[in-house]
Amino acid sequence: MTTTITPQDVEATVIENLVAFGADESAVVRDATLESIDVDSLDLVELTQVVEETYSIDLDGADFKNIKTVGDIVDLVVARVQG
Amino acid sequence: MSLRDVVITGVGAVTPLGVGARTLHERWTAGNSGIRDGEAPCADFDPTDHMSAKQARRADRSTQLAIAAGTEALEDAGWTDGPPYDAELIGCVLGTGIGGISTLESNHDQLRDTGPGSVSPLAIPLMMSNAGSAALSLQHGLRGPVFSVVSACAAGTHAIGTALRMIQHGEAEAMVTGAAEAPLTPLSRACFERMGAISPTGVSRPFDNRRDGFVMGEGAGVLVLESGDAARARGARILGTVRGYGSTGDAHHITAPHSEGRGGARAMQVALGDAGVDPGEIDYVNAHGTSTQLNDRAETRALKTVFGVRAGQIPVSSTKSAIGHLLGAAGAVEAVATCLALRDRVAPPTIGWEEAEEGLDLDYVAGSSRPLVMSNGRSPVALSNSFGFGGHNASLCLEAA
Protein backbone atom coordinates (compact mmCIF):
# COMPACT_ATOMS: atom_id res chain seq x y z
CA MET A 1 0.00 0.00 0.00
CA THR A 2 1.33 3.42 -0.93
CA THR A 3 0.33 6.42 1.09
CA THR A 4 0.88 9.94 -0.14
CA ILE A 5 3.10 12.11 2.00
CA THR A 6 1.88 15.67 2.00
CA PRO A 7 3.89 18.81 2.84
CA GLN A 8 1.52 19.21 5.80
CA ASP A 9 2.57 15.78 7.11
CA VAL A 10 6.22 16.75 6.86
CA GLU A 11 5.65 20.10 8.53
CA ALA A 12 3.80 18.39 11.38
CA THR A 13 6.63 15.88 11.85
CA VAL A 14 9.31 18.58 11.81
CA ILE A 15 7.46 20.81 14.27
CA GLU A 16 6.54 17.96 16.58
CA ASN A 17 10.17 16.88 16.83
CA LEU A 18 11.62 20.37 17.28
CA VAL A 19 9.17 20.85 20.14
CA ALA A 20 10.19 17.50 21.59
CA PHE A 21 13.82 18.68 21.46
CA GLY A 22 12.84 21.56 23.72
CA ALA A 23 11.84 24.41 21.38
CA ASP A 24 8.94 26.61 22.50
CA GLU A 25 5.81 25.22 20.83
CA SER A 26 4.23 28.59 20.12
CA ALA A 27 7.40 29.85 18.43
CA VAL A 28 7.95 26.91 16.08
CA VAL A 29 6.31 28.18 12.90
CA ARG A 30 7.35 28.00 9.24
CA ASP A 31 9.01 31.41 9.19
CA ALA A 32 10.87 31.05 12.47
CA THR A 33 14.65 31.07 12.07
CA LEU A 34 16.41 28.16 13.72
CA GLU A 35 18.46 30.63 15.72
CA SER A 36 15.34 32.30 17.11
CA ILE A 37 13.98 29.00 18.44
CA ASP A 38 17.38 27.86 19.72
CA VAL A 39 17.74 24.93 17.34
CA ASP A 40 21.40 24.11 16.79
CA SER A 41 23.46 21.66 14.78
CA LEU A 42 22.93 18.81 17.26
CA ASP A 43 19.16 19.26 17.02
CA LEU A 44 19.43 19.19 13.22
CA VAL A 45 21.36 15.92 13.31
CA GLU A 46 18.68 14.41 15.54
CA LEU A 47 15.91 15.72 13.32
CA THR A 48 17.69 14.34 10.26
CA GLN A 49 17.74 10.93 11.91
CA VAL A 50 13.98 11.09 12.47
CA VAL A 51 12.97 12.28 8.99
CA GLU A 52 15.33 9.84 7.27
CA GLU A 53 13.69 7.02 9.18
CA THR A 54 10.13 8.32 8.77
CA TYR A 55 10.30 9.10 5.05
CA SER A 56 13.00 6.66 3.89
CA ILE A 57 15.23 9.38 2.52
CA ASP A 58 18.92 10.19 2.86
CA LEU A 59 20.20 13.62 3.78
CA ASP A 60 23.73 14.75 4.46
CA GLY A 61 25.44 17.75 6.01
CA ALA A 62 25.70 19.65 2.72
CA ASP A 63 21.89 19.58 2.37
CA PHE A 64 21.65 21.80 5.45
CA LYS A 65 24.12 24.45 4.29
CA ASN A 66 21.45 26.97 3.34
CA ILE A 67 18.83 26.00 5.91
CA LYS A 68 17.79 29.01 7.99
CA THR A 69 14.12 28.53 8.92
CA VAL A 70 11.72 25.79 9.93
CA GLY A 71 10.13 26.12 6.48
CA ASP A 72 13.50 25.52 4.80
CA ILE A 73 13.73 22.17 6.58
CA VAL A 74 10.18 21.23 5.57
CA ASP A 75 10.85 22.20 1.95
CA LEU A 76 14.09 20.23 1.86
CA VAL A 77 12.39 17.09 3.16
CA VAL A 78 9.38 17.50 0.86
CA ALA A 79 11.65 17.97 -2.18
CA ARG A 80 13.60 14.85 -1.28
CA VAL A 81 10.47 12.80 -0.65
CA GLN A 82 8.99 13.84 -3.96
CA GLY A 83 12.30 13.56 -5.78
CA MET B 1 54.21 31.79 49.91
CA SER B 2 51.21 31.86 52.15
CA LEU B 3 48.14 30.21 50.70
CA ARG B 4 44.76 31.91 50.64
CA ASP B 5 42.04 30.57 52.91
CA VAL B 6 39.06 28.96 51.20
CA VAL B 7 35.51 29.06 52.53
CA ILE B 8 32.30 27.23 51.69
CA THR B 9 29.49 29.67 50.90
CA GLY B 10 26.89 27.39 49.33
CA VAL B 11 25.92 23.74 49.23
CA GLY B 12 23.47 21.72 47.18
CA ALA B 13 22.60 18.04 46.97
CA VAL B 14 20.23 15.58 45.42
CA THR B 15 20.33 12.31 47.30
CA PRO B 16 18.23 9.24 48.07
CA LEU B 17 16.99 11.17 51.12
CA GLY B 18 15.43 13.79 48.82
CA VAL B 19 16.19 16.95 46.94
CA GLY B 20 18.26 19.50 48.83
CA ALA B 21 21.34 19.68 51.00
CA ARG B 22 19.34 20.49 54.12
CA THR B 23 17.00 17.58 53.39
CA LEU B 24 20.03 15.29 53.36
CA HIS B 25 21.40 16.76 56.57
CA GLU B 26 18.12 16.84 58.49
CA ARG B 27 16.92 13.41 57.43
CA TRP B 28 20.26 11.68 58.03
CA THR B 29 20.59 13.40 61.42
CA ALA B 30 17.08 12.17 62.26
CA GLY B 31 18.12 8.62 61.41
CA ASN B 32 16.12 8.26 58.17
CA SER B 33 17.28 6.02 55.35
CA GLY B 34 16.85 6.49 51.61
CA ILE B 35 17.51 2.82 50.84
CA ARG B 36 14.66 0.78 49.39
CA ASP B 37 14.78 -2.76 48.04
CA GLY B 38 18.54 -2.90 48.22
CA GLU B 39 19.19 0.26 46.22
CA ALA B 40 19.22 3.98 46.89
CA PRO B 41 17.60 5.91 44.03
CA CYS B 42 16.78 9.62 44.06
CA ALA B 43 13.11 8.71 43.79
CA ASP B 44 11.87 12.29 44.39
CA PHE B 45 14.02 13.78 41.64
CA ASP B 46 12.21 15.07 38.55
CA PRO B 47 14.69 16.78 36.21
CA THR B 48 12.05 19.09 34.73
CA ASP B 49 11.60 20.70 38.16
CA HIS B 50 15.16 21.96 37.85
CA MET B 51 15.90 22.65 34.17
CA SER B 52 14.37 23.28 30.78
CA ALA B 53 13.22 20.39 28.62
CA LYS B 54 16.11 21.09 26.28
CA GLN B 55 18.69 21.10 29.06
CA ALA B 56 17.26 17.85 30.45
CA ARG B 57 17.37 16.19 27.01
CA ARG B 58 21.00 17.17 26.64
CA ALA B 59 22.06 15.69 29.95
CA ASP B 60 22.56 12.16 31.17
CA ARG B 61 20.85 11.52 34.49
CA SER B 62 24.19 12.01 36.28
CA THR B 63 24.48 15.49 34.76
CA GLN B 64 20.83 16.28 35.53
CA LEU B 65 21.60 15.53 39.18
CA ALA B 66 24.69 17.79 39.01
CA ILE B 67 22.68 20.62 37.44
CA ALA B 68 20.04 20.47 40.19
CA ALA B 69 22.61 20.33 43.00
CA GLY B 70 24.61 23.09 41.31
CA THR B 71 21.64 25.43 41.01
CA GLU B 72 20.86 24.92 44.69
CA ALA B 73 24.48 25.53 45.73
CA LEU B 74 24.74 28.77 43.73
CA GLU B 75 21.44 30.06 45.14
CA ASP B 76 22.59 29.05 48.62
CA ALA B 77 25.78 31.07 48.06
CA GLY B 78 23.65 34.09 47.18
CA TRP B 79 24.72 34.04 43.55
CA THR B 80 21.15 34.65 42.45
CA ASP B 81 22.00 37.65 40.26
CA GLY B 82 24.91 35.85 38.65
CA PRO B 83 28.39 35.05 39.89
CA PRO B 84 29.87 37.83 42.03
CA TYR B 85 33.34 37.76 40.43
CA ASP B 86 34.85 38.01 36.97
CA ALA B 87 33.62 34.88 35.20
CA GLU B 88 37.18 34.09 34.12
CA LEU B 89 38.12 33.72 37.77
CA ILE B 90 35.37 31.21 38.51
CA GLY B 91 35.83 27.58 37.52
CA CYS B 92 34.14 24.26 37.95
CA VAL B 93 35.70 20.92 38.85
CA LEU B 94 33.33 18.01 39.26
CA GLY B 95 34.04 14.36 39.86
CA THR B 96 32.40 11.18 38.67
CA GLY B 97 33.27 7.53 38.86
CA ILE B 98 31.68 6.33 35.65
CA GLY B 99 30.03 9.21 33.79
CA GLY B 100 26.95 8.75 31.64
CA ILE B 101 26.56 5.02 31.81
CA SER B 102 22.78 4.95 31.18
CA THR B 103 23.40 6.86 27.93
CA LEU B 104 26.12 4.40 26.99
CA GLU B 105 23.83 1.45 27.66
CA SER B 106 20.80 2.79 25.80
CA ASN B 107 22.90 3.69 22.77
CA HIS B 108 24.54 0.31 22.78
CA ASP B 109 21.05 -1.22 22.74
CA GLN B 110 20.20 0.94 19.71
CA LEU B 111 23.42 -0.05 17.94
CA ARG B 112 22.79 -3.73 18.52
CA ASP B 113 19.07 -3.67 17.68
CA THR B 114 18.85 -1.25 14.77
CA GLY B 115 22.37 -0.43 13.62
CA PRO B 116 24.76 2.53 13.81
CA GLY B 117 22.35 4.95 12.11
CA SER B 118 20.11 4.95 15.15
CA VAL B 119 22.78 5.89 17.66
CA SER B 120 22.02 9.35 19.06
CA PRO B 121 24.17 12.29 17.96
CA LEU B 122 23.89 13.39 21.58
CA ALA B 123 25.43 10.18 22.91
CA ILE B 124 28.97 11.51 23.25
CA PRO B 125 28.15 14.85 24.92
CA LEU B 126 25.80 13.00 27.27
CA MET B 127 28.08 10.13 28.26
CA MET B 128 31.44 11.89 28.47
CA SER B 129 32.76 11.93 32.03
CA ASN B 130 33.35 15.68 31.85
CA ALA B 131 29.69 16.41 31.00
CA GLY B 132 28.84 17.61 34.51
CA SER B 133 31.48 20.34 34.77
CA ALA B 134 30.76 21.39 31.18
CA ALA B 135 27.03 21.69 31.91
CA LEU B 136 27.52 23.85 35.01
CA SER B 137 30.05 26.03 33.19
CA LEU B 138 27.62 26.56 30.31
CA GLN B 139 24.62 27.19 32.53
CA HIS B 140 26.30 29.70 34.80
CA GLY B 141 28.86 31.20 32.42
CA LEU B 142 31.89 29.97 34.38
CA ARG B 143 35.00 30.59 32.29
CA GLY B 144 37.85 29.81 34.67
CA PRO B 145 39.38 26.32 35.01
CA VAL B 146 36.63 23.83 34.01
CA PHE B 147 37.17 20.08 33.92
CA SER B 148 36.22 16.83 35.63
CA VAL B 149 38.22 14.36 37.63
CA VAL B 150 37.78 10.60 37.62
CA SER B 151 39.01 8.44 40.48
CA ALA B 152 36.24 5.92 41.14
CA CYS B 153 34.73 6.37 44.58
CA ALA B 154 37.25 9.05 45.57
CA ALA B 155 36.32 11.41 42.70
CA GLY B 156 34.13 13.82 44.68
CA THR B 157 36.79 14.39 47.31
CA HIS B 158 39.51 14.77 44.69
CA ALA B 159 37.35 17.33 42.88
CA ILE B 160 36.88 19.44 46.00
CA GLY B 161 40.58 19.16 46.85
CA THR B 162 41.51 20.25 43.34
CA ALA B 163 39.12 23.21 43.54
CA LEU B 164 40.65 24.13 46.91
CA ARG B 165 44.10 24.30 45.33
CA MET B 166 42.83 26.46 42.44
CA ILE B 167 41.67 29.11 44.90
CA GLN B 168 44.59 28.74 47.30
CA HIS B 169 47.01 29.42 44.47
CA GLY B 170 45.05 32.30 42.97
CA GLU B 171 44.10 30.54 39.77
CA ALA B 172 40.45 31.16 40.65
CA GLU B 173 38.55 33.43 43.01
CA ALA B 174 35.72 30.93 43.38
CA MET B 175 35.03 27.35 42.31
CA VAL B 176 31.86 25.35 41.86
CA THR B 177 32.83 21.82 42.80
CA GLY B 178 31.47 18.44 43.78
CA ALA B 179 30.43 15.29 41.96
CA ALA B 180 27.54 13.33 40.49
CA GLU B 181 26.79 9.71 39.73
CA ALA B 182 23.79 7.86 38.29
CA PRO B 183 24.86 4.22 38.22
CA LEU B 184 21.54 2.42 38.79
CA THR B 185 21.57 0.65 35.42
CA PRO B 186 21.46 -3.03 34.48
CA LEU B 187 25.09 -3.10 33.35
CA SER B 188 26.69 -1.39 36.33
CA ARG B 189 24.43 -3.35 38.69
CA ALA B 190 25.57 -6.61 37.10
CA CYS B 191 29.22 -5.55 37.08
CA PHE B 192 29.33 -4.64 40.76
CA GLU B 193 27.31 -7.73 41.67
CA ARG B 194 29.65 -10.01 39.73
CA MET B 195 32.64 -8.69 41.62
CA GLY B 196 30.90 -9.33 44.93
CA ALA B 197 30.89 -5.70 46.01
CA ILE B 198 27.13 -5.28 46.45
CA SER B 199 25.30 -6.39 49.58
CA PRO B 200 23.26 -9.51 48.75
CA THR B 201 20.97 -8.72 51.68
CA GLY B 202 20.50 -5.15 50.47
CA VAL B 203 21.52 -3.63 53.78
CA SER B 204 24.12 -0.89 54.22
CA ARG B 205 25.54 -1.23 57.74
CA PRO B 206 29.04 0.17 57.74
CA PHE B 207 31.43 -1.12 60.40
CA ASP B 208 28.85 -3.66 61.68
CA ASN B 209 30.00 -7.27 62.03
CA ARG B 210 27.20 -8.43 59.71
CA ARG B 211 28.07 -6.09 56.81
CA ASP B 212 28.19 -7.87 53.46
CA GLY B 213 28.78 -5.22 50.80
CA PHE B 214 27.59 -1.82 49.72
CA VAL B 215 24.18 -0.64 48.56
CA MET B 216 24.48 1.27 45.31
CA GLY B 217 22.96 4.74 45.19
CA GLU B 218 22.78 7.79 42.96
CA GLY B 219 22.99 11.50 43.55
CA ALA B 220 25.04 14.65 43.41
CA GLY B 221 26.63 17.12 45.79
CA VAL B 222 27.91 20.55 44.84
CA LEU B 223 29.69 23.19 46.93
CA VAL B 224 30.56 26.78 46.17
CA LEU B 225 34.08 27.56 47.40
CA GLU B 226 35.37 31.10 47.50
CA SER B 227 38.53 32.86 48.53
CA GLY B 228 37.91 33.81 52.16
CA ASP B 229 38.92 37.44 51.63
CA ALA B 230 36.65 37.82 48.60
CA ALA B 231 33.71 36.13 50.33
CA ARG B 232 34.06 38.33 53.43
CA ALA B 233 34.42 41.44 51.27
CA ARG B 234 31.11 40.74 49.57
CA GLY B 235 29.46 39.96 52.89
CA ALA B 236 28.78 36.33 52.04
CA ARG B 237 27.36 33.98 54.64
CA ILE B 238 30.13 31.49 55.34
CA LEU B 239 29.17 27.89 56.15
CA GLY B 240 32.62 26.55 56.80
CA THR B 241 36.25 26.43 55.78
CA VAL B 242 38.10 23.85 53.72
CA ARG B 243 41.20 23.67 55.89
CA GLY B 244 43.16 20.99 54.10
CA TYR B 245 43.32 18.17 51.62
CA GLY B 246 45.45 15.10 51.13
CA SER B 247 45.51 12.46 48.44
CA THR B 248 47.60 9.32 48.08
CA GLY B 249 47.81 6.09 46.12
CA ASP B 250 47.91 2.63 47.66
CA ALA B 251 50.05 0.97 44.96
CA HIS B 252 48.79 -2.25 46.47
CA HIS B 253 45.85 -3.81 44.59
CA ILE B 254 43.43 -2.75 41.85
CA THR B 255 40.34 -3.07 44.09
CA ALA B 256 41.32 -4.09 47.63
CA PRO B 257 42.59 -1.48 50.07
CA HIS B 258 45.86 -2.14 51.82
CA SER B 259 44.92 -4.25 54.86
CA GLU B 260 46.29 -1.70 57.31
CA GLY B 261 44.74 1.20 55.40
CA ARG B 262 48.23 2.51 54.78
CA GLY B 263 47.31 4.83 51.91
CA GLY B 264 44.12 5.98 53.62
CA ALA B 265 45.99 6.82 56.80
CA ARG B 266 48.55 8.80 54.88
CA ALA B 267 45.83 10.73 53.00
CA MET B 268 44.38 11.78 56.37
CA GLN B 269 47.84 12.70 57.69
CA VAL B 270 48.58 14.76 54.58
CA ALA B 271 45.20 16.54 54.91
CA LEU B 272 45.90 17.31 58.58
CA GLY B 273 49.39 18.58 57.77
CA ASP B 274 48.01 20.68 54.92
CA ALA B 275 45.41 22.13 57.29
CA GLY B 276 47.90 22.76 60.08
CA VAL B 277 45.56 20.81 62.34
CA ASP B 278 46.82 18.45 65.02
CA PRO B 279 45.11 15.01 65.10
CA GLY B 280 44.05 15.92 68.65
CA GLU B 281 41.91 18.74 67.30
CA ILE B 282 39.66 16.54 65.15
CA ASP B 283 36.12 16.39 66.54
CA TYR B 284 34.39 14.15 63.99
CA VAL B 285 35.21 11.87 61.08
CA ASN B 286 32.87 11.31 58.16
CA ALA B 287 34.18 7.90 57.16
CA HIS B 288 34.23 6.36 53.71
CA GLY B 289 32.52 3.43 55.53
CA THR B 290 31.15 1.49 52.57
CA SER B 291 29.76 -1.54 54.44
CA THR B 292 32.21 -3.85 52.67
CA GLN B 293 34.33 -6.23 54.72
CA LEU B 294 37.64 -4.87 53.50
CA ASN B 295 37.03 -1.12 53.46
CA ASP B 296 35.58 -0.83 56.94
CA ARG B 297 38.33 -2.93 58.49
CA ALA B 298 41.13 -1.09 56.67
CA GLU B 299 39.61 2.32 57.37
CA THR B 300 39.28 1.52 61.09
CA ARG B 301 42.96 0.53 61.17
CA ALA B 302 43.88 3.68 59.27
CA LEU B 303 41.99 5.81 61.81
CA LYS B 304 43.88 4.08 64.63
CA THR B 305 47.17 4.83 62.88
CA VAL B 306 46.29 8.50 62.53
CA PHE B 307 44.68 9.12 65.93
CA GLY B 308 46.43 6.54 68.13
CA VAL B 309 44.85 6.00 71.54
CA ARG B 310 42.41 8.85 70.90
CA ALA B 311 40.84 7.05 67.91
CA GLY B 312 38.16 5.49 70.09
CA GLN B 313 37.06 8.86 71.46
CA ILE B 314 36.24 10.52 68.12
CA PRO B 315 32.75 10.04 66.69
CA VAL B 316 33.10 8.32 63.31
CA SER B 317 30.02 7.84 61.13
CA SER B 318 29.17 6.86 57.59
CA THR B 319 26.63 8.72 55.44
CA LYS B 320 26.40 5.50 53.39
CA SER B 321 24.33 3.98 56.21
CA ALA B 322 21.54 6.37 55.15
CA ILE B 323 21.98 6.79 51.39
CA GLY B 324 24.10 3.86 50.25
CA HIS B 325 27.23 4.30 48.17
CA LEU B 326 27.01 7.06 45.57
CA LEU B 327 30.33 5.92 44.05
CA GLY B 328 32.07 8.96 42.51
CA ALA B 329 29.52 11.34 44.04
CA ALA B 330 29.98 9.96 47.56
CA GLY B 331 32.80 12.27 48.65
CA ALA B 332 30.98 15.39 47.45
CA VAL B 333 27.68 14.52 49.10
CA GLU B 334 29.54 13.55 52.27
CA ALA B 335 31.46 16.84 52.28
CA VAL B 336 28.10 18.65 52.07
CA ALA B 337 26.73 16.49 54.90
CA THR B 338 29.86 17.05 57.00
CA CYS B 339 29.77 20.80 56.45
CA LEU B 340 26.16 21.04 57.66
CA ALA B 341 26.73 18.60 60.54
CA LEU B 342 29.67 20.70 61.81
CA ARG B 343 27.59 23.85 61.44
CA ASP B 344 24.88 22.30 63.63
CA ARG B 345 27.45 20.78 66.00
CA VAL B 346 26.11 17.28 65.54
CA ALA B 347 27.55 13.86 64.68
CA PRO B 348 24.92 12.03 62.58
CA PRO B 349 24.57 8.29 63.20
CA THR B 350 25.83 5.20 61.43
CA ILE B 351 22.31 3.86 60.94
CA GLY B 352 21.90 0.16 61.66
CA TRP B 353 25.19 -0.30 63.50
CA GLU B 354 24.58 -2.85 66.24
CA GLU B 355 27.16 -5.60 66.26
CA ALA B 356 30.86 -5.02 66.85
CA GLU B 357 33.53 -7.00 65.07
CA GLU B 358 36.78 -7.74 66.84
CA GLY B 359 39.11 -4.84 66.17
CA LEU B 360 36.34 -2.63 64.83
CA ASP B 361 35.87 -0.86 68.13
CA LEU B 362 35.67 2.84 67.37
CA ASP B 363 32.77 5.11 68.31
CA TYR B 364 30.64 4.66 65.18
CA VAL B 365 27.79 6.82 66.55
CA ALA B 366 25.37 3.93 66.91
CA GLY B 367 21.67 4.50 67.34
CA SER B 368 21.05 8.18 66.91
CA SER B 369 22.89 11.42 66.26
CA ARG B 370 24.79 13.06 69.03
CA PRO B 371 25.72 16.68 69.78
CA LEU B 372 29.33 17.70 69.25
CA VAL B 373 30.10 19.43 72.53
CA MET B 374 32.75 22.09 71.97
CA SER B 375 34.83 23.67 74.68
CA ASN B 376 35.88 27.35 74.67
CA GLY B 377 33.53 28.19 71.81
CA ARG B 378 35.94 26.53 69.36
CA SER B 379 34.59 25.59 65.92
CA PRO B 380 34.44 21.86 65.28
CA VAL B 381 36.87 20.34 62.77
CA ALA B 382 36.33 17.13 60.83
CA LEU B 383 37.91 14.83 58.29
CA SER B 384 35.88 13.45 55.39
CA ASN B 385 37.41 10.37 53.73
CA SER B 386 37.00 8.78 50.31
CA PHE B 387 38.77 5.74 48.92
CA GLY B 388 38.38 4.38 45.40
CA PHE B 389 39.08 1.28 43.34
CA GLY B 390 42.54 1.75 41.92
CA GLY B 391 43.93 2.55 45.35
CA HIS B 392 42.93 6.23 45.24
CA ASN B 393 42.66 7.83 48.67
CA ALA B 394 41.56 11.36 49.46
CA SER B 395 40.71 13.20 52.65
CA LEU B 396 39.39 16.69 53.33
CA CYS B 397 39.76 18.64 56.55
CA LEU B 398 36.69 20.85 57.10
CA GLU B 399 35.93 23.36 59.83
CA ALA B 400 32.61 24.92 60.74
CA ALA B 401 32.31 28.69 60.40
Largest sheet of chain B: 11 strands, mixed
Portion in beta strands of chain B: 15-25%
Between the first and last Cα atoms of chain A, what is the distance in angstroms?
Answer: 19 Å
Distance between the termini of chain B: 24 Å
**Helix and strand composition category of chain B:** alpha/beta
> Count of DSSP helices of chain B?
13
- Give the helix proportion of chain B (percent range): 25-40%
Give the total of beta strands of chain A: 0
Give the SSE string of chain B: EEHHHEHHHEHEHEHEHEHEHHEEEE
Mean pLDDT of chain A: 93
What would the average pLDDT of chain B be, to the nearest integer?
A: 97
Strand content of chain A: under 5%
List the helices and strands and how they pair.
The complex is a heterodimer of chains A (83) and B (401).
Chain A: H1 7-20, H2 41-55, H3 70-82
Helix pairs in contact in A: 1-2, 1-3
Chain B: E1 6-15, E2 18-19, H1 21-29, H2 53-57, H3 61-76, E3 90-95, H4 101-114, H5 123-127, H6 131-140, E4 146-149, H7 155-168, E5 174-181, H8 186-194, E6 219-227, H9 228-233, E7 240-249, H10 262-275, E8 284-286, H11 293-307, E9 316-317, H12 320-323, H13 330-343, E10 346-347, E11 370-371, E12 381-388, E13 392-400
Parallel strand pairs in B: 3-4, 3-5, 8-9, 8-12
Antiparallel strand pairs in B: 1-2, 1-6, 1-7, 5-6, 7-13, 10-11, 12-13
Helix pairs in contact in B: 1-13, 3-6, 7-13, 10-11
